Amino acid sequence: MSDVLMTLGNVRFSVSEGAYRTLNRTLEMAVAKVARANRAVARQVLGEDETIEIAGVCYPLHRHGADRIERFRELARGYKPLMLTDGLGFVWGRYLIERVEERGSEFTREGQAQKQEFTLTLGAFGEDGQ
Questions:
Q1: Which residues contact 102 (CB under 8 A, 6 or more apart)?
Q2: Which terminus has fewer CB within 10 Å in the chain: N or C?
Q3: Where do the structural domains in the chain lie, given as residue ranges?
Q4: What pTM, to 2 d.p., does this model score?
Q5: Mean pLDDT by 10 residues, the chain (130 residues)
């Protein structure tokens, strides 16, 4: 049985390679308010915006590579949507990395963080024709 929780492009989130701790999924509807004379405001749905926030912890001096969070930055700078799938085989679709956040703590004498917390913000890549 695989221990992969999710993959984003070629990055695996797994128990052995660095699992995430939380996953938040938000769907926001883009709605325009249209003022009308002597009537209630009308609303028009323009589309939807889905975001996923993945937060986790890496321990670069132990199980996880020291470059894991830098790999997230490289993928974000590629400006390309990445396929997101989960360990059950569900295909979530293509997502862009919109934000990479890192928080280091428990530093060695040389200044290397022994604990790196990260948060990735992913935005659903709206395909044409949807």
A1: 69, 116, 117, 118
A2: N
A3: 4-124
A4: 0.80
A5: 80 75 92 92 91 87 72 92 92 95 84 83 81
